[in-house]
Fold these 4 entries.
Entry 1:
Amino acid sequence: MSTVAETAHKPEHDCLLRPGSTNCAGCGMSLGLQWLDEALGENRPVMVIPACCGIVTAGKFPTTAYGVPTVAATFAAAAAVGTGVSVVQELNGDDHPVVCWAGDGGTYDIGLATISAAAERNENIIFFCYDNEIYGNTGGQRSSATPAGVRTTTTPFGKVETKKDIMSIMAAHRVPYAATLSLAHRDDFMRKLATARRTRGFRFLLMLSPCPTGWKSEPTQSVELVDYAVRSGLFPVYEVFGGTHYRINVRRDGTPVEEFTQRQRRYRGVDVDLDIVRAQIEQRWQFLETMERAFPVAEDRR
Amino acid sequence: MARALVTGNYAAGYTLSLAGESNREAMGCAVGAYPITPQTEIIETVAAYKFSKGRMVAVESEHSAMAVCIGASLAGARAFTASSSNGLAYMVENVYMAGFYRLPIVMIAVNRTLGPPWNIWTDQSDSLMLRDTGWIQLYAAAHQDLVDAILLAFRIAEDHRVLLPVLVSMDGFLVSHTSGVVELPELEQVERYLPNLDLPHRLRHEHPVTVGGMTFPHETEHHRKGMIDAMDRVPEVLREAIEEFEPVFGRRPRGAMAADFTEDAETVLIACNTMSRTLKNVIRERRKRGEKIGMIETRMFRPLIEDELRAAIGPAKRVGILDRNISPGSGGVFWREITSALQGHSDVLVQDYLVGLGGGDVTPAIINEIIDDLVTRKRAVAPIWKEVAA
């Protein structure tokens, strides 16, 4: 007869995201952190997290939901604090990955100069942006990642400007690897994290991260929403090697964009002209498909 | 030990580099650096040093320069940088973070007037802006003082009884860009003087913690109290650092303040940085004429060692403070702080003189005018503005 001790699952290490985080139900970050943990396996990361929901996730001192060494950075400074950690690790032959984990505010907006500089220096860090298209931690204000037409607390009549194309900005830095991640496409997600882990230098990962609190959506529908965003073409899933070579990983399938927008109350009460959104999707895909044709990634490159 | 004629900036860059190199058998060193006049030559000197285990990261802003130091220090390395003026202002958020994370980072502040309007000359509006950040503040009036202060800075910062960052300031141009004869240390001496850095709270996979997570008011109170306690231990650690300095380097560095001719002085002047050197010459002359006059050079502003200051002022009837800085709506920062230190201990007359703001030359003639005013003064008035620049 086996004992409890023999049969109980005993992980080799503490998990990255322990039970008891303060994340809201349906937060994309919760799943993203668990998949990151799984993908890194024995390569335990150091997490560098700027001011954002991601550091609140830890909960209140002296407890923490993070089971790996974690540093809270100032809002703009994750990529620079991460640089400092990475530099010292390299000097000491320590190859634990340094993961900067930031929201869209800390990536697209206040952190952009710092990220740009770290990317230009090709620092050996993984910069992971969980993009919920909003300043979620402060209650849902617009960021430059907020799509046009969305109602936020600082755009009560709907945002006019288009979402910033951060992937093209990072690609323009010629970083070794940049990829978008879908929580509805686990195999693709895990493969890309494996690629990121194997690659040296600056790696940029962008995950569309549902925020039921800010998106006014059902927590149980978070993964479904990402799936609609991908299938409608609103959130293209692709990767860029060396800033020049493109590969689209998931094709759009004609799913109407309404499937995504109608399930979120942030799109209600404003006149979102979906024709404009559809035109933007077309333009985006034309660009990506042109790049993919002109600068394809070698088929065996994983 | 090499005797050399070097600029203040070179002396600082050289000494910082040796401090970094001397940690090569531990976790090495790292520097986040960004140029700004008049400190740029410091980071250029560091950039030219070939570290066995160290790297300078040329970042895109002062904010990131300090952020790199923070990450490197948390990872266990010796970290240092330099800046001035608006660069320090841009860096402030991370200067606080370094202090609140109790990281033994050393930074050189080459004092320069804050803009606008744009002015590259010296005053202390920049380093004094960092007064409440939890950093120890040392001020060096001359080249040798600067080298010694940097060595003391690492020693104090990394002591486990302290674990606070240290800012070492000097006057822009008056020290940074002038040359002075200095005893430059050898690497072997620095290695003997500075033990390998062992940061007790460095990042460790075997004991993962979240540095800087959320605390409620109660924990925050305890965190701040820990910083106050650490500041309170600085005088003791500084004394030991001075005692152990001499056998290694063959000279005695100066401490938190330097008092001259104060034993019998009825009038005491207090000044910082290069103004104190001009002041000393003036006071020597006036003592020759029989005037009972003395001076104190303030070399450590944080912590301000109040009992030592009171003892140094002694039985003087009048104290004059030369402030090369201003807090609009209040007055000179040193004046306010020193007045508070004397409160309840002494009814000595304390008069503030705002002088040399924006880098105007504080000449012996100006200082004589100030002393002439002070020695006949019956009561203190609001800070007296001495316009020195023509």
Entry 2:
Amino acid sequence: MITVSNAVRVYKRGKTEVRALSLESLVVPTGQFLSVMGASGSGKSTLLNLLGALDVPTSGTITIEGREISRLPDDELSAFRRDRLGFIFQFFNLLPTLTAVENVILPALLSGKSRSDMEPKAHALLEQVGLKGRDTHRPDELSGGEMQRVAVARALLTEPALLLADEPTGNLDSKTGAEVLKLIRDATRARNLTVVMVTHDPKAAEVGDRIVRLADGKVVGDELTRSAAA
Amino acid sequence: MLQLLRLVSLRHLSLSPLRTVLTIMGVAVGVATLIGIAAINRAVMGAFRSTIDTIAGKADLSISAGQAGFPEDVLEKVSKLPGVQHAAGSITVVAPVKGTPGERLYVMGVDLLDDGFFRNYEGADRDVGHMSDDLEFLNSTDRMLVSERFAASHGLKAGGTFQLVTPTGTQDFIVHGLLKETGPIKAFGGLVGVMYIGSAQVAFTRERMLDRIDVGVDPKVGTDAVKEALQAALGVQYEVARPDRRGQSTETMVRSFQLGLNLGSSVALLVGVFLVYNTVAIGVVQRRREIGVLRALGATKRRIRALFALEAVVLGALGSLLGIPLGTLLAKGTVSAVSDSISSIYVQVNATSVTFTPFEMIVGVALGIGGSLFAALRPAFVASQVQPVEALRKDMASGAANVSSFATIVGALLIAGVWPATRIPAPIENFPVGGYLAMFFILMGTTLLSPLVLRVLQRVYQRPGELALGVPGRLAADNFARAPARTAVPVSALAIGVAMTVCIAGFVGSFQKSSEKWIDQSVPADLFVTSSSKVAGVQNVPLKPEFGDPIEQMPEVAAVDRLRIYQHDLLGLRIFIVSLNPDIYNLHGKPEVREGRLPTHEMRQQGYVTISENLSRRRNLHPESTFEMDTPTGRRSYKVSGVITDYTSDQGTVFMDRKIFVAQFNDDRVDNFEIYLKDPKTTEQVRDRINAQWKDEYDLFVLSNQELRQEAYALVDNAFSVTYAMEFLAVILALLGVINTLLAAVLDRTREIGLLRAVGAARKHIVRLFAGEAALIGLTGGVIGSLSGYVLGYIVTKVVGVEATGWDFAYIFPLKLAVQMLLAATACAIIAGLYPARRASRLDVVEALAYE
Ligand SMILES: Nc1ncnc2c1ncn2[C@@H]1O[C@H](COP(=O)(O)OP(=O)(O)O)[C@@H](O)[C@H]1O
Ligand SMILES: [Mg+2]
């Protein structure tokens, strides 16, 4: 479960202050697939960064699986990210010099796990995301959709508590995008994984269980999707 | 164009101020060493020349006959010769000043009445004109007029006393008056004393001898005619020359030494130019989109090329201008070290001040700017190839860039040309063009090949990198070869610095090893006694032979060999004649005979001598070869009996029986008393006794065999100290290049750093990533440098060195130093990399992810 209460993020740009986000309360139960929508500049990325422990709120608290992450030092935030979180970005998700497998096991290697322990699992995950036989390809030998699949596999490897995706299909054509979205939904549902995904695309948002709409850093809408309601 | 430069380039340069400053510093240091060394070389040669010139005064001709001088009655003969209007004899002695080690006073013994015609002496406190009949001055053996400079530095006034070391020991001298620093008093850095000739002859035990006669010629007869007449009248052993022709063999001799210094400074500039290449190339990569926009807006390819070339010129000009004051500082700081080195090996000079000529400055600045422009050619060309559509491209850092096959081919060709280049014979003595060319080929060849080497090494480094540092280590290995053209620059710059250091150390070490073996075999005495200098040769004061008599009487002493080590011109070389007593020497010494044999007593009487290996090689002299040498007793013919290994002088050495030498050279003084003991255990005892009795009086240095060896080591080390310092600078410059390159890499990979941080890399991982890459740059530079240093050292020892010194000794690779350099290069690169690494690790994750 994720709990955000009274989280405020203020950016100072010179003398002026920008209130990028001010959330009174947001609770995401374990296993829920939450889509976040809103106009450009409404605070979506800011929210995702806070949930992803990439940034800390100016005030307020964020708790993920009982752990308060809003006041942790940098080292612990990093460790938390690699052990408990998975990320999928819009583009440039992979390190160009590493093979698909190596990209997948990167977080595990960063926590000091051994290659030989993790590789079998990574191969299995790559097969699950539909990349059988492409394990040793490098990013420049993969298509955009394939790269996103590798990113999904990486996000799943450490069995995280929360998967964060910032417009994961924004760079893909609609058919490939739909496939990747389905992959994310199926893989997370099977694992009862919580997902928070930012998207511009209403159709993509519908893939999740719930949609939260932001405007000027505040929640202006919160509803269950048809698929969840059904 | 200038608008464009202001708008595009200057903004870019000011956005990465650190990199810009590093580059400018790089050029500055390169230019500084270049003009600094040129100024030092000129200062040293100038000091030597100006001593000759200022002393020569208005003389049309001057007559000399080597170091031992000639009898003073020659003066009368000269004066009577038709066409000679004036003639003045003089002696000169460079005397160590007691109490201030290393300081020497240039004492001229002249007859002021005659001498006034040629030279102008100006008294500071009294009229020198009266001096020629000042009886107090003429009748004493200890009164001297000294330069104001000397007086001031010792706090002396007229009537004050000071001490000089003479062949008969330390003597008191009285300041009779002070001389203004004009005319001849400017010689020898202004440390000059003038005595009445008769007094000087007595004081320095040169009775009835002259070193030089200056001649004023009747213009109606003409200098050439008088020169011929003098030569005919005096005989070939006299050198009758115009003053400006004197000292040429000395200048040739010092040339190879100076060439080495010039070589060192060129390397520093080369590394500086590398930095410019680095910066401009990085700028092109980082501004591809900007260039695309310019192209889309209608800028021609030529314009883009000109823009980047201009940018390099601006960097080069700023660096060069900064290099001038820096070079001045450098020259001022090192001139005395170079001067001391030359004084201890070749000829006594006293160069303390340096001046800079506009020409040198212009050349320095031109080379700085020209080098920078040259460095920018390729990046500028690459920039002009950027297509307008790239303006639109959303750049994703790619995994791999290509290695230019053109560079690889040229690099391979250069390396292939190394061996043939070493075969090119030297066009002028002491100037081994082929060897230098081969060295240049190696440096350029490895530089061009290094991108390829980086590629290969990437695979080698991956595993160990990951083992040592985890994934960051693996990624560091990848990143290391990702922009091979860019990373190759600091690698090559480091490699050049390391290579030159290893090369010089290899040469020096090999020489020291060989000379150690030589001292072992050929210099067997237990104690060595010299006056005023630790080693006999250029700087010591020769003593009277009787000085050895009481030592001979000591019960512990088996024998005392009296050596004269006499600098003399032979076949255009300024060689040493070492005269010793073969009966003593042959009992103990086992010189390595390379050809022929050591002469027997009978052979010695027939003119057979032993010569050194390098003289043999330089002048193609072998057993039974004959050569002629001018001695104070006429031109004589000698025959080579044997060729032996000897490291007394890089010019060459002739060994003679002392008895024969004394008879032929009219000189019985002794430079080195070599003491053989009955029992080596008494060394300290005997040394203490000699020191207690005579050290003070004669300013003695009594060295044991072991200490002599150390001195020989130190002499060589000192000779190369400035060169070492320059290579050290080159390595520092290269480290600036490491910072430069990594800062650019941080910018390029900001997005990647953000991604790594998002998937859980902690700050320490990012630090390791960049420090690891720095370590690999350092390690690779160290490895390439050590390997090419191995070859360079071989070439310097076996090609350049053989040509410049005639010595051919075994080359020993300085393995220990190479390993140390390799580790130091790695460690220093890591330290240099820490700043960029820290910067990378402090990047704000959110901003890094949003980058581009
Ligand atoms: N690093 C920053 N510094 C200053 N203002 C920022 C920064 N990041 C975001 N903002 C501002 O915060 C607001 C929310 O931004 P963001 O969360 O990126 O919106 P979205 O992702 O919904 O487009 C915007 O007004 C944006 O300009
Ligand atoms: Mg956004």
Entry 3:
Amino acid sequence: MIETEDLVEAPPQNPVEPYLRTDRLPHIWCPGCGIGTSLNCFVRALIESKEDLDRLAVVSGIGCSGRVAGYVAFDSFHTTHGRAVPFATGLKLANPALKVVVYSGDGDLFAIGGNHIIHAARRNVDIKVICVNNFLYAMTGGQSGPTTPPSSITTTSPYGGFEPAFNLPHLMDAAGAVYVARWTTFHVRQLTRAMIEILHKPGFCFIEVLSPCPTLYERRNKLGDGLDTMKYYKEKSKIRHGAPTSEVALDKRGEIIVGKFVDRNRPEYLELMRAQHRAQLGDRFVEAPACLCD
Amino acid sequence: MRADPRGVLTGVHFMDGDHACCEGALAAGARFAAGYPITPSTEVVERFAARIPTIGGVFIQMEDELAASIAILGAVWAGAKAFTVTSGPGFSLMMEHVGLAVMTETPCVIVNVQRGGPSTGLPTLPAQGDMMQARWGSHGDYEIIALSPNSPQECFDLTVRAFNLAEKYRTPVMFMMDEVVGHMTEKVVIPPAEEIEVYPRRYTRKSPGEYKPFEPCEDLVPEMVRAGTGYRFHITGVTHDERGYPLINPEAQDKLVRRLKEKIRRAAGELAFYEEEGTDAADVIVVSYGITSRVAQRAIDLARAKGIRVGKLRLITIWPFPDEKIRELARRTGAFVVPELNLGQIVREVERAAAGAARTYAVPHAGGTVHRPEQILSVIEEAAR
Amino acid sequence: MARGFVTILIERCKGCGFCVEFCPTKVLAMSSAFNSKGYHPPHVVAPEKCSGCDLCGMFCPDFAIFGWKLRNGKAVGGGRES
Ligand SMILES: Cc1ncc(C[n+]2csc(CCOP(=O)(O)OP(=O)(O)O)c2C)c(N)n1
Ligand code: SF4
Ligand code: SF4
Ligand code: SF4
């Protein structure tokens, strides 16, 4: 057998490493937590996308998922709980050359931040939202939230939840997102591909990533560990591209419809703003400089 | 640095305080504003929305004040000068992002055209009831800068200054107007751009390898960068080290929070703007600010006509509170009279700073209108006895 | 076909088992040994079956494993590819 050391010019390195703040690893996420897998896909998507990563900005809110901004070696902003989207809106509108990605949790984006995300989708602000959905509030110890499937046990639904949950793709579709997809952390290749697609697609894009939280969701609901959840994703997911988003609601351990549900084109916010002002103001209209810093 | 002439509406105008504030922001270089409508502040952003497409910039009406107050922070990190404008209920919603701006040292201006509270209170009528909220409204321990104008002219001049201070100290600056000043129309002189001094952003010259986002300069203020320029920096509202990395322990907290407070506190002297008159041999000094200072002037004139030796201290900087000035005056006067459109806020600061060296009299008013000069006069007379 | 290799950063591993479960050719197994944090990392049990596809690398939530290929004496895949 050939000794690799003799032949390899330089020992290989994990391809994602140059894009992570390796001085902060190991990260805080638990064994079998899916957030790291989603981040792994994200970094690979960035590499493959050939985007200028000096112009990438990653914005997170607060939560386990919200810690993503702290681990990526890009301009990154760890903001307040629920408000990553309006921060990202300001960032993008003031410097449209930036590629702005919001990476945060389901509670952050759809409970406390619910109002912001529907309006960003409505406006079609050119930001990309990656929502890690682990079905509850993990960072604070496992409380129920707007995505918690009914009958789930959480610390604030000790007898099982009874509130209906949001169907996130349906909500984002209705609000006007131009791209809506759902994958799980089992679907690493498809997820990576979807992330590349949204990096290249103008307008408000949304990916829901179902992700195990073995420590809080799976454990309390006696659903095994992270690996069991990954196997569940593998067994129970059905790929249905273009499925009507009204048909992709989730329930506890039932079938999961994954795929790209929405991919359409609508003029994005700044385009609309410029067109309207130019039409109304004529010669008096002054285009905003490429960056408001100039 | 001189103002960018595109934003400067040089000339002699007849305009209200809200509009003058907007012109001040444009003159200072603000090219991004986010807002949410609320009386009596809306005219500021209405004017911005009308003006900015002819100058080059962005106005966005957000879905609420939480959104507006953080959208401006995003814009600042993209490189813009940015501000938001609100009144009572919206000011309450913005408080979390005051904290984020303090913690991340994000220069920005938050304008509050004060109306009566609590809650919806008096939507169309004046008050000065948010002065303590401006100081203490966000959670945690911090210092803030707050200015209070008393005329449309000052709404212009001091808005420019508010932006400059925000940049110099890398902090949010509260611009504390009130409904009367906001809606009062007077002459406003806007000078030529080359006469308007604008403080530039403190961008670093260091290379990405050397630069640390929260490494303080001598004045305790760190240098800034903006997104998209290759620094690949991290900012967080979590307690952090000089690299901007979260660090959750008592030592990191002590180091960071002390520096954030100290960078403002040690500048309190140079930040103390006020108007002082007739205090040399005064038995009583009236301390006032904003619209109340104009009513107080009438009371001072009436008192002087009655032979009372009254001095005037009009506070322009409210925070950091000019302790040193009050202390100095307390040594040479008998009493302070403090009228304000609240039931006793800044008077507590005067009393604290005077530390017993002079008596302190409040002239409280719950808001909705201004004081009658006689109300203030009668307290001056009482204090002079 | 290029030959595949897999590199495991034992100290970063948290023992979730994703890589072992989802390696298409069953190259890996969980080791009975512990790393210094007390987790069982994977180890290579069938090196000849590794294609260097890096699927394990994509699944790993802890950036603790990755696959790569040797082509004309050069490592491809892994961070030296480009
Ligand atoms: C204004 C505010 N309210 C509450 C909290 C506490 N908090 C922190 S994270 C979190 C929930 C996070 O849930 P999610 O977004 O689903 O992220 P996860 O931790 O599950 O990844 C809450 C309620 C906070 N930080 N700020
Ligand atoms: S608590 Fe859940 S979401 Fe948070 S790191 Fe642990 S497994 Fe992941
Ligand atoms: S590189 Fe592919 S074949 Fe090799 S161990 Fe990893 S998953 Fe298995
Ligand atoms: S996927 Fe990563 S963390 Fe999980 S067992 Fe394999 S090497 Fe360890």
Entry 4:
Amino acid sequence: MPAEMILRDKTYPIPSGMTIRHALEKIGVNPDTVLPTRDGELLTDDELIRDGDRIRLIAVISGGRSPSAGSPHGSAI
Amino acid sequence: MKCRKCGAKAALNMRQHRLALCAEHFLEWLPDQTQRFIQKYRMFLPEERILVAVSGGKDSLSLWDILSRLGYSADGLYIDLGIDHGTGYSTVSRQKAAAFAESHMLKLLIVDVPATLGASIPTAARLTHRGAQKPCSVCGMTKRHIMNRMARDLGYDVLATGHNLDDEAAVLFGNTLTWATGYLARQGPVLDAETGFVRKVKPFCRLYERETAAYALLRGIDYVYEECPLADGATSIFYKDVLSRMETERPGIKLAFYLSFLQARLGGFLAAPSSIAASEMHPCPACGQPTTSVDVCSFCRTWNAVRTRREAEGPGE
Ligand code: SF4
Ligand SMILES: [Zn+2]
Ligand SMILES: [Zn+2]
């Protein structure tokens, strides 16, 4: 049974047996920008992917925040 | 991978610190770190009253959570900007902020921009030159004004925001590329109080965005995942992306970039904060907040114009 990775509304099929880090490299996602979870549990990226796994990736990089003081745009939250 | 403290299965590996921790120990470690930076940069004292700017996002809610866990007296301030754009952004984020406050028995102050100022941010942006192409300019100015006024009028000692290391490094990167020395001189963990302006602090400035996101997740904080639909985040996302790619090759480089900047700033390599001479500042005749303009401040000027133009347009948006 294949495994898959889900980031936002995209699903990537991935082979089981490799590490999460390796799988992220394969699908071109920078491991520093996501948190991998399985059934809501947070995983480190040396974890091996098992058959049938659904690894949900939580994107951690937000862009649209109002810039802070000291930025050309002013301040905020 | 195992937790360094207890040997159980690790939940998060922080290559930049060569540290892996289980959920339980990570949830202890992050508040400890925050406390360390609050003291190191002399952000505030235990007896001071803190107002946390809460957007409903992971950083501001995690910050509020940690400050109250650390025993600080911290109230929240949510500013409802009236941004919908088909996603109900303001409604959803306001609900998340309110739900968090309620479940943690914390006090949340809410300022409703359309109700108090007479127009939503998108409407105000449409009606002014300042915001014609970029609502963020009107929005940022409005939020700055409201945050400062609320903090001052209600007697808070300090205003805290949830900016994390990735935010700070991205801004620093942008300002360094253009050598924006005026901005560089003002960027830091603390912006001291100046006449009429309350002190501003960023207790998360040394925490990676990955760490604050992991904290929110592990604490079960329900935050808005979506971004503001008006965000013009292209540039800052680009800088964050570049920095993250460097980080993957050289774990810790983002933190080193920010810390060596703070060091240089402390060492006087940047001009002293170019604070406008206090004598040039005077209270705005309309709202009382300090300004350098001869007439009313830019906040009052902008919102007066918005109201006038709205009336001219007649009822209905
Ligand atoms: S992204 Fe722009 S418009 Fe949206 S909340 Fe931030 S400053 Fe306001
Ligand atoms: Zn542990
Ligand atoms: Zn004014």
